[in-house]
Write a structure and sequence with these properties.
Two copies of one chain form a homodimer. By secondary structure, chain A is α+β, with helices and mostly antiparallel strands. Chain A has a domain at about 450-580. Helices cover about 55% and strands about 10% of the residues of chain A. Chain A is built from 18 helices and eleven strands. In chain A, strands 3, 4, 5, 6, 7, 10 and 11 form a seven-stranded mixed sheet that branches. Chain A has a two-stranded antiparallel ribbon with strand order 1-2. In chain A, strands 8-9 form a two-stranded antiparallel ribbon. The longest helix of chain A has about 35 residues, at about 280-320. The mean pLDDT of chain A is about 95.
Chain lengths: ~600, ~600
C-alpha cells in the first residue's frame, strides 16, 4: 500500500527562494510570507495524507456505480469531500464577493498539489468545479454569478464541462447538440455528451453542467457554438432547488484508471439551459475553463510522478538485493538496498529532477496568471499563453513516463495491483489525453502560440533566458554546470523556431515537428527552472542558510538534469529539421 | 473491440528478402522456401485472428480464478489451447526424437509472433513450456528426457520457471527454498515461489515446475543453487500420472495486465523433486531457459506494438476530425480522417518503423541462435549473447512506448477499456519487467556481454556494420539516407564502448550509463536492420519485383527511422559520457 507525504520543504523553496512570492508586485502577494504558506501547506498536506491518500486505492478498486440513475462514489469519498469543503480548500482563490478567500491563484495551485498527488480521481471533482466557477465568473451576468457562484465556491454544487460528443472531440465544429431558444430567454438543450468527468455523483446537492451546443441558425463550425449552464436541478428564484432537469447519466465509462471519478455519458433531452456569455461565442468562454484546466492537468502530470517517486524511493531504500560494486554498504545485512546501484539511482534522479523542475515551472506559470489577471500585464499573459501547452503536454508525457519509471523500481511487485504503483501509471495516463490530447497541445504551441502577436512572446521568453545567462555569466558555480547547457538548449529552441518560420510555405513541416518542439521547449523550461533554482540555492548558501544540506542537494540535483536531460534538445532539433518529407512520405493506403 | 491480422507480407520479406533463410548454410534452412513459410504463417495467422484474438478481451475481463486449489482459465482458453496443440503449433522446432517437427528455431519464432500479437496472456502458457522443454533437453538425463519431453512438446503437460521468492528476485543468491536429498536419489523441495507464470491452470494434465532451490551444505549465494523438476502430479514408471505432489497455489496475483495468464504464488511443502543438471549448477540450466525466454520477451515487445499499431492505423483512417491544412482530403465528408494530420502520421510512423525494425532484429537473432546451435558457430553465439539483452530491454521499452502511442491516437476512446487499447498498454508493461527487469538487461549488456571474450563480439558487431557500409558506399540511393546516419550512430556506439573501457577503475560510470547504452545499441541495431532492409528492397526493385509499392514503402519507412530516430544515439552518448558523478552525487539520505 503506497504512502504520501506533501513535499513541504520543496514547495516552500519554490514559493520563497525561487519565486520570492511575497516580494512580487502582484495584489495579494505581500501576504504570502513563509509562515503563512507554511501553515496552509502543512494543513493541506495533512488532509492529503490522512484523508485522501487512504481513499486512493479504495476509489481504484470500487470505482463509481450507476444505481437507478444516480452515481454512487466509492466508500468514504463523500465524507472526505465534506471535510475538504468545510476546510475551505475549494475557495482559496475565489472571489470574496461569492464566499471565496480571495487569495492569489498561485496559492490555490500549490495547495492543490498534495490533493492531486494523494488522490487524483478525487481531486477532479473539485478541479472541474473550479473551472466552471471561472467560466461563470468571467462570462456570466450578475444574476448568473449570484445564482451559481456561491455554491460552486463551496463545492456544495459541483461543475462539469460538457464538450465532447461521440463523433467530435478535438474538432468541436462537428458538434450536434442543439439549444433551442425559448420565449423566456432560456434554451432547451438536446444532445449526447461523452467523457464528462464528475458528470454525476452523490457528493453534491446539485451539478452545474457547462454545455457547448449549437443555436439553430447560427454559423457553421466552431463559430456557431455557444455555452450553456444546464443544472441537474433547476434553481428557484429564492435559491432553493426546484425540478429535476432533463439531463441524465447514460452510462459510466469503464476506464484504464481514475476509477474513483465518474466519467459519464450525459444525455440532454430538452434540458433547460441558460446562455453563458454571448451567443456563438461559446468557444471563448470554454477556453477560460480550458486554459485553467490545462495548467491543472500539467500539475497532475508531475503530482502523480511525485507520489510514485516517493514510493519508489522508499522501496529503493528498503529492498535488499545485490551489492554495491564498490563494496558492501550494508555489510551486516544479506544484501545492500537497491538504491546503491547506479541504474536505480539514474532512475530515481530522472524522477526527482523532473518533479522538482515541473513544480517550479507550474508555480511560475501560476504567478504569470496572477500577474496577467491582477496587474493586467500583457507580457505575462503572452508568456503563459505560450507556455500553457508546454506545461500541459510536456509535463503529462513526462509525468506518465516517470510513473512508469517509479513502477519499474519495484520489479515484479510493481506489476501487482496491491503495491499501488500500477494505479499511479493508469491514473497518470489520462492526463496525456484529456483537456486536449498532447498532440493538440503541440499543434496549439506551434500553430497558434509561436506566431502569436508577431512572435513577441517566444522572443520575450528567449530574451528572459538570455538575460539570466548574461547576468550570471561570472558565477563560476553556475557557468559550466548550468548556464552553458541552458544556453545551448535555448539556441536549439531558437533554431527550431526559425526553422518553422522558414517553412511558412510548407506548413506540414512545422506540424510534423510540433511534438518534438513541445518537448524541446519543455526541456528548455525545466533547464531555466533548474538554473534559476541553482541561483536561488547559491544565494541561500552564500547567506549561510541553516539547512545547507537542502540547498547543496538542490544544486546536485539540478546538475543532473542539465547534464543528462538537456542533451535532448539537440536530438529534437535534428528531428525537427528533417521536415515534413519523412513523416508524410507514405500514401495513407501504403501504411 | 480491436482486430488483428498477421502481417504475412512483412514476415515473408524479413525471412526471404532480408535474411534469405533458404539460402543460409544452416541445417534445415534449405526447406524454408517462400511457399513453405507462407503456408505455415498463413495458417498461424488464421489461428491467431480467428481463435486467439477474440479471446484476448475475454481473458482480460475474466482473468483466472482459484477455485478449491485449482486455477480456472477464462472461458474459451482451454478449447483454444487444444486447437493450438492439435495444430502442432507447440512442436515446431522441437526434437523429432520427442515428437517435435524439427524445424529451425527461426520458424518457431516467426510463427509465434501472431499468437503473441493476438493474445499475449494466452501465448505465455506455451512460451514457458517451451523454456522448460529446452532446459530439460539440454540438461536432462536420457531418462528425464524420455519422461518429460514428449508431453511438453505437445503441451499436454505445461512447464513453469520457479525462480523468484518474496525477498529475492534479481539477487537469486538470497534464495531460501531448500531441497533435501532422499535415499532414492530424489529430493524434497520446500519453499515459497512467487510470480510464477502459468503456475497452475486447467488446460493441461500435468504441470512441470522447474524450481531453483538450495541443497543444504552447498556453497552460499548463487553458486549453491540447483535446478529441480517438480511435477504437479508424480509420474508412474509406465508414464501414467500418479499421486498429487505437494506443490500448490497459494494465490493468483491481481495484476495490471495479462489477466488471462495465471501468475501464481507456488508453495512447495516437501514436494518431490528431481535434480536437473548438476548439483549447485542450477543457474547454468536456468539460463538456458532464460536466454530463450528473453528473446521471446523481446518478441512480445514488438508483437504487442504490432497489434496496437494495426488498430491505431485503422482508427486513424476511420476517425474524421479536422481538415488537412493543405486542403480537404475528404471534401464530401464532415471532416478528414485524422491520418492526414502530420502529428498523427509522426505517431504512426514511429510505431511502424519500430515494429518492422524489431521484427527484423528478432528474426535475425533467431537465425544466429540456429547458427550457433546447429553449426556450432561461436561467432554467432557471441553475437546473439551480446544482442539478447538489447532485444529484450530495448524492444520491450519501445514496444510499451509504442502501445502507449497507439492508444494516444484514439484520444479519449483510448482510455476506455471497451476499445481494447488500454489492454495492449497494460499487457505490454510486463515485458519490461519479467525475465530480468530492463535495468538488469542493461547491466548484463555492459557488465558482462560488452567485455565478454575480450570484447570480440562487440567488435565483430561493429565490423559487421562497417562492412555493410563499405560494401554499399557507392550506392547513392543508400548513402545519405541510410549509410551516413548508420555510420554516425555506430561511431557513437563505439565511442560509448571506449568510454566505458576508459572508466575501468570507476565501474559506477559504466553502470550509470548502462541503460543509455542499451538504448543506444538498440537504435544502432534497428538502424542496421533498416539499412539492410533498404538494400533488400532496392535489390527487389532492381529485379523488377511485382509488388514495387511494397518495396518503395519499405524504403520510405526506413528513411523515417534513420532520419528521426538515429539522432538519439548522439544524445545517449552525451548522457553516457557525463559519467557517474551526476548520477551518484546525492547521499541516499538526501533524496
Amino acid at each position: 500500500m503506497p504512502s504520501y507525504t506533501a513535499p513541504l520543504r520543496d514547495m516552500q523553496f519554490v514559493l520563497h527562494d525561487l519565486l520570492k512570492v511575497s516580494a512580487q508586485d502582484i495584489p495579494g502577494y505581500a501576504d504570502l510570507d513563509r509562515a503563512f504558506t507554511a501553515a496552509v501547506l502543512e494543513e493541506a498536506g495533512k488532509v492529503a495524507t490522512n484523508l485522501l491518500q487512504p481513499l486512493n486505492a479504495v476509489g481504484d478498486r470500487q470505482g463509481c456505480r450507476l444505481e437507478n440513475g444516480v452515481v454512487r462514489t466509492p466508500t468514504g469519498f463523500a465524507a472526505a469531500f465534506d471535510a475538504v469543503r468545510s476546510g475551505g480548500w475549494t475557495a482559496i482563490d475565489c472571489d470574496p464577493a461569492y464566499g471565496g478567500q480571495g487569495l492569489p491563484y498561485v496559492m490555490h495551485m500549490v495547495a492543490q498539489e498534495p490533493f492531486v498527488s494523494a488522490n487524483m480521481a478525487f481531486s477532479i471533482y473539485q478541479g472541474v468545479t473550479h473551472g466552471a466557477y471561472s467560466a461563470i465568473l468571467w462570462h456570466g451576468t450578475d444574476a448568473q454569478k449570484a445564482t451559481w457562484l456561491p455554491k460552486l465556491v463551496t463545492c456544495e454544487w459541483t461543475g462539469t464541462m460538457n464538450l465532447t460528443e461521440p463523433h467530435c472531440g478535438t474538432d468541436l465544429g462537428l458538434m450536434r447538440t442543439r439549444a433551442e431558444p425559448q420565449a423566456d430567454g432560456s434554451y432547451r438543450v438536446t444532445g449526447q455528451k461523452i467523457f464528462i468527468s464528475a458528470g454525476d455523483h452523490d457528493m453534491a446537492d446539485n451539478i452545474v453542467h457547462l454545455v457547448l451546443a449549437r443555436i439553430p441558425g447560427g454559423p457553421d463550425g466552431v463559430k456557431g457554438v455557444s455555452l450553456f449552464i444546464v443544472p441537474k436541478f433547476l434553481v428557484n428564484p429564492d435559491g432553493t432547488l426546484g425540478a429535476r432537469n432533463a439531463v441524465s447519466v447514460g452510462k459510466i465509462e469503464e476506464k484504464m484508471g481514475i476509477h474513483g471519478n465518474a466519467t459519464c455519458i450525459m444525455n440532454h433531452d430538452d434540458a433547460v439551459g441558460y446562455l453563458l456569455g454571448k451567443a456563438h461565442k461559446g468557444m471563448r468562454a470554454m477556453f477560460t475553463m480550458m486554459n485553467e484546466a490545462r495548467l491543472g492537468v500539467g500539475l497532475q502530470g508531475y503530482a502523480q510522478a511525485e507520489a510514485a517517486y516517493q514510493n519508489a524511493l522508499a522501496y529503493a531504500r528498503d529492498r535488499l538485493q545485490g551489492r554495491d560494486i564498490l563494496g558492501a554498504q550494508n555489510p551486516d545485512g544479506p544484501a545492500d538496498p537497491i538504491i546503491v546501484h547506479p541504474d536505480v539511482r539514474r532512475n530515481l534522479m530522472d524522477q526527482k529532477t523532473f518533479v522538482e523542475g515541473a513544480r517550479a515551472l507550474t508555480m511560475w506559470g501560476a504567478t504569470l496568471i496572477d500577474r496577467a489577471q491582477k496587474n493586467g500585464d500583457t507580457d505575462a499573459d503572452g508568456l503563459i499563453s505560450l507556455l500553457t501547452p508546454v506545461i500541459k503536454g510536456f509535463q503529462t508525457d513526462k509525468g506518465f513516463e516517470m510513473a512508469v519509471a517509479a513502477q519499474q523500481v519495484f520489479g515484479g511487485h510493481g506489476y501487482i495491483e496491491a503495491w499501488g504503483m500500477s494505479q499511479f501509471v493508469r491514473d497518470a495516463r489520462i492526463a496525456m489525453i484529456y483537456e486536449g490530447a498532447n498532440g493538440i497541445q503541440a499543434l496549439d504551441l506551434v500553430g497558434r502560440k509561436l506566431g502569436a502577436d508577431g512572435g513577441r512572446p517566444v522572443m520575450a521568453f528567449l530574451d528572459l533566458i538570455r538575460g539570466f545567462v548574461t547576468t550570471n555569466q561570472a558565477e563560476a558555480r553556475l557557468k559550466a554546470d548550468f548556464l552553458d547547457p541552458l544556453e545551448a538548449a535555448t539556441a536549439d529552441m531558437h533554431a527550431a523556431a526559425l526553422y518553422f518560420m522558414g517553412q511558412i510555405k510548407t506548413p506540414h513541416a512545422a506540424l510534423a515537428g510540433s511534438y518534438d518542439f513541445m518537448h524541446l521547449t519543455g526541456h528548455v523550461c525545466l533547464g531555466l527552472m533548474w538554473a534559476q533554482m541553482a541561483r536561488a540555492a547559491l544565494d541561500a548558501l552564500d547567506a549561510r542558510a541553516s539547512d545547507s544540506a537542502f540547498y547543496e542537494t538542490k544544486l546536485a540535483t539540478g546538475r543532473y538534469y542539465m547534464a543528462r536531460h538537456l542533451p535532448a534538445t539537440a536530438m529534437l532539433l535534428a528531428r525537427i529539421t528533417t521536415g515534413a518529407a519523412p513523416v508524410m512520405a507514405l500514401d495513407a493506403a501504403h501504411f
